[in-house]
Amino acid sequence: MSHPHPQLAAPAPLAAGALRVVALGGIGEIGRNMTVFEYDGRLLVVDCGVLFPEDDQPGIDLILPDFSAIRDRLDAVEAVVLTHAHEDHIGAVPYLLRERGDIPVYGSRLTLALLEAKLGEHRQHPPLHVVAEGETRALGPFTVELFAVNHSVPDALAVAIKTPAGVVLHTGDFKMDQTPIDGRLTDLGGFARLGREGVDLLLSDSTNAEVPGFVESEREIGPVLRRVLAGAEKRVIVACFASHVHRVQQVLDAADASGRHVAFVGRSMVRNMNISKELGYLRVPAGLLVDMKDVESLPENKVCLVSTGSQGEPMSALSRMANRDHQIRIEQGDTVVLASSLIPGNENAVFRVINGLSRWGAKVVHKSTALVHVSGHAPAGELLYVLNAVRPSNLMPIHGEWRHLRAHAALAELSGLPPERVVIAEDGIVVDLVDGLAAVVGAVECGYVYVDGLAVGDVTEVSLKDRRILGDEGMVTITVVVDASSGKIVGGPEIIARGVSDEPGAFDECRRLAAKAVEDALAEGVTDRQGLQQRVRRVVGRWISDTYRRRPMITPVVLEV
Amino acid sequence: MSHPHPQLAAPAPLAAGALRVVALGGIGEIGRNMTVFEYDGRLLVVDCGVLFPEDDQPGIDLILPDFSAIRDRLDAVEAVVLTHAHEDHIGAVPYLLRERGDIPVYGSRLTLALLEAKLGEHRQHPPLHVVAEGETRALGPFTVELFAVNHSVPDALAVAIKTPAGVVLHTGDFKMDQTPIDGRLTDLGGFARLGREGVDLLLSDSTNAEVPGFVESEREIGPVLRRVLAGAEKRVIVACFASHVHRVQQVLDAADASGRHVAFVGRSMVRNMNISKELGYLRVPAGLLVDMKDVESLPENKVCLVSTGSQGEPMSALSRMANRDHQIRIEQGDTVVLASSLIPGNENAVFRVINGLSRWGAKVVHKSTALVHVSGHAPAGELLYVLNAVRPSNLMPIHGEWRHLRAHAALAELSGLPPERVVIAEDGIVVDLVDGLAAVVGAVECGYVYVDGLAVGDVTEVSLKDRRILGDEGMVTITVVVDASSGKIVGGPEIIARGVSDEPGAFDECRRLAAKAVEDALAEGVTDRQGLQQRVRRVVGRWISDTYRRRPMITPVVLEV
After folding, report:
1. CB pair distance less than 8 Å for B467 and A474
2. Which 3-state string (H, E, C) describes A399-463?
3. Which residue, A74, A5, A26, is CA-closest to A398?
4. Best residue in A1, A5, A451, A475 to probe B by mutation, most B CBs within 10 Å?
5. Chain A residue at shortest CA distance from B425
6. ipTM score here?
7. CA-to-CA distance for B34 and B53, rounded, in angstroms?
8. Cβ <8 Å between A360 and B481
């Protein structure tokens, strides 16, 4: 498929013996991954994650997959299968459970342990079923087989879904590290065996499809961390994702080797590392860990903090250290390691933290200056291994923006798959697998669902458009009270402007013009509020445009008494 | 200097025989470069550029250097010397000329030609003096010698400033391309000669100080462009900066070699390339250029467009093509080359354009996938060449954020300069060169000066803070009219909310609470507007916080009639 989809109609009901695949998130974007499979009236959901907002979605906390397409069929959901514990794969589970609380959830031991901590905050207790690589489960008409995959969180799974309509392999997020920290390789042999049995449709991670070659092993970061920690003069603070257990493991090992104690900083880091330690995913040398409150009493060259905040989150401990607004006061000789990716859109925030830390004299090590991060996603070379091992009849690239989906499609063609066997979908595009051929058959509603504060869905594109205008241009409210009987102004005009001009008296002339506009309108016999407000809006808008060449949000209020 | 500067007082007046250096922009940030030199009561300004706003400065068009420190001494300014024609070095000249219109401006031929086009729009005609490498000019007590430097715009200069207090070398922006397109090398020999004579203070470009090694030659992009243009099935659109004459030259040469005609797209591209062509900086093969209106009549594989919009600017031709909102309708088989850097903060905008183009089927080539861009700034390896050639007595890193300044300082130490001879300043920090030693002696006012629409400086941090709240949270205005004599509400409460909730009736309960708050206050004898407004603000704020966990801008208006 070479062109994007025109306006597609809702598809016909699924034919008997066919398998339907719809992504309610995760295709055309990086995040809120959720794919729904339908067979014989029953549904299986793989992943249910959140998307983090971009700069044109101001004030939004999270974006959810759009459940509209399955909302009136939630009873048909056999299960949610989770591939791994990242927020963009599990973060929306509580919101789905709000709509039906007893959906069975399947996932690996670590995935469910991290999910359970989150569900506890929401006081939700769905049936949780731990599964592991090599296992097969019958979930209604779907037979699910799990495969080990390597990723930037331990215990990730790929999912094969077998129905009479055919076999689908959903990779989840993965890469092909050949020397992983936990020795748990992506099961390429298993993929090949499944391929020999026949994979009708491969859904595969496209995040790094544009990146040529192979990703360095996570293991290669170890010596770099050891060198940094051994050579650091004073304290070392390492920031990374709170779920990156293997990265933290390597920090712990480097700290141990350099005689430093480790304290965890940040709520999610403390929580996740406790869980990982209890379940045996994180090996902690005896006596290594200390509490933050005990850090102050240690010599500075015996300290290593492992912290959240690697994306420059303004409230994180690291950002507060950069602003000298934290108990840890950064000094000349301290070393900060950002052992993390730089998610597009976070650059300014991250550089602000790096500059703040540099300003106070810290040495800052980050992925542009040392090998302290490797990606968790398979680049082109590794994707080709999977395509060649599985030899699917059809490919549907998932987990990616258009640039990634196109690049993945090009790789599939290179591997010998005919272009018409590559289905580039988007969120809400309905793909049916019939007689071994996957094809687009229609589309269902699939918009952005915004979480802001306590509410889900009450902020829509209308409010976001208003926020963008308010944020770029500010607001001007003009209030006038009119006496209906005398036809005269008896109160105001009162002008309140925010974000427009900080010069005293800036709106004096504007106020006179607004008063005159109302008086003129009343004299012309305009008495309805709408009409009067329109006059005020026009006069004030023109004056601001002429004076400032700006277009703030103008809200006139005319009240009659 | 290892620590940032505490609150510094204004410096004492400059001692006789000493040289003073103050950056009014460009240190601690990338942009609005402006350095003021003072000797014997006279001032010399090097560069006067703009800074582009970040996401926490919403709605702002430009940020200027802060002229406060020299505003009452503009008559003492001997000249402005411009190092090259980039906006962050010349963009604020019109704003300085607004304050004194006859300041003599010195620069290379291309720099002044591009400046003149800009000044024409402002109807400004200061005395312009073309200078070239190798020339020396006496500007009051300052003897200025110019050196050729290579950068991402032709005809860039470094400036040596000689006074009885000592010799300063200001590199401007530069790199050390050893095979530049125009054969005009950075004059390392000249720097070395000046160094032998004695350079007391080196001000050197820090932008790429964190980047190890050397930058590839601009020339290496040529073969890549030729391959892309020769192999493209249909149209090719190359986006790059409108001042990057050598990049455009290479596109023209590649188009010529592949039998394609070229049209320029975008106002600044058309203007700059006309000027560059007329002055001989751009060599255009006969018959190569066509007008945009003639493009439609050419076969698609004979077309190459050279466009602005490489940073994802929403109004640019390229963004409009990505949205199918442009006469050029992107189709499968078209190729788009982003032959440009990716300025931090622009990632989301640029990826939005790449995704849009990919969606319509265009092949998009960018710097992550092919060598279609090289930086214009010297990385660490090249900075060391300059440090070793000049062997300055003191270094003051310029043109950089803190991370860059610190990295440049570390390079200077590597080259053998004692740490106490490296002065890390910030905007407004005053550095005096006395008896061969450069040292911080105080600070002058140096804030952000915002240009928004027609006005300069009326939007301050107060408005920006309001805009951030409005943009993230929206606004709620509550209007109530009270009869002073009866002590009763006679109009409203009227609630206008924008950017808060799009649910119908969302504020019905809030309106009742606001009315009750006013009635209760009136019953308690509160009659002043401030007091009534405070009650309303408190009640409405609490209700919104409890209901939504949000904190919009709340503006209560109580009017008495």
Report:
1. yes
2. CECHHHHHHHHHHHHHCCCCHHHECCCCCCEEEEEECCEEEEEEECCCCCEEEECCEECCCCHHH
3. A26
4. A475
5. A359
6. 0.92
7. 17
8. no
Q: B-chain residues within 8 Å CB-CB of A348? A: 54-56, 344-345
Which of the four pLDDT bands, split at 50, 70 and 90, describes residue A7?
Answer: confident
Average pLDDT over residues A194-214: 97
Q: Which residues on chain B are in Cβ contact (under 8 Å) with A425? A: none
- Record: contact A452-B58, CB cut-off 8 A: no
β-pairing, B553-560 with B475-483?
Answer: parallel
Nearest CB to B348: which of A55, A474, A483? A55
Question: A428 and A27 in contact (C-beta within 8 Å)?
Answer: no
Q: A254: pLDDT confidence band, cut at 50, 70 and 90?
A: very high
B471 touches chain A (CB under 8 A): yes
Q: How many CB atoms lie within 10 A of CB A434?
A: 16
Which burial class, exposed, middle or buried, applies to B541 when counting CB atoms under 10 A from its CB (0-12, 13-18, 19+)? middle
Of B347, B351, B453, nearest to A549 by CB-CB distance is: B453
Residue B428's SS3 state is coil
Query: Would you put residue A24 in left (φ > 0), alpha (ψ -120 to 50) or beta?
Result: alpha
Query: Helix or strand or coil: residue A365?
Result: strand
> Rounded to an integer, what distance in angstroms lies between the CA atom of residue B220 and that of residue B225?
9
Name the A residues in 174-233 with CB < 8 Å from any B CB.
210-212
> Residue B418 class from Cβ within 10 Å (0-12 exposed, 13-18 middle, 19+ buried)?
exposed
Does residue A509 belong to the interface with chain B, where contact is any CB pair within 8 Å?
no
Domains of chain B plus CATH, in order, are 19-213+375-456 (3.60.15.10), 218-365 (3.40.50.10710), 469-560 (3.10.20.580)
Classify residue A146 as exposed, middle or buried by CB count within 10 Å of its CB (0-12, 13-18, 19+): buried
Between B511 and A1, name the one with better pLDDT: B511
Q: Taking CA atoms, what residue in A is nearest to B331? A: A3
Which segments of chain B have a pLDDT < 50?
A: 1-3
Q: What is the pTM of this model?
A: 0.93
> Which of A412, A416, A370, A373 lies closest to A395 in space, CA to CA?
A412
d(CA A413, CA A1) in angstroms, rounded, equals 12
Cβ <8 Å between B549 and A503: no
Interface test with chain A among B54, B402, B424, by most A beta carbons within 10 Å: B402
Closest-CA distance of chain A to residue B466, Å: 5
A177: helix, coil or strand?
Answer: coil
User: How close A357 comes to chain B (CA, Å)?
Assistant: 8
State whether B2 and A454 contact (CB < 8 Å). no
Q: What is the pLDDT of residue A308?
A: 96
Residues 6+ apart with CB under 8 A from A335: A228, A232, A233, A234, A235, A236, A237, A362, A363, A364, A365
Q: Are A69 and A36 in contact (CB under 8 A)?
A: yes
SS (HEC) of B24-55? EECECECCCCEEEEEECCEEEEECCCCECCCC
Burial (CB count within 10 angstroms: exposed 0-12, middle 13-18, buried 19+), residue B516: middle
Left if phi > 0, otherwise alpha if psi is -120 to 50, otherwise beta: which for A457?
A: left
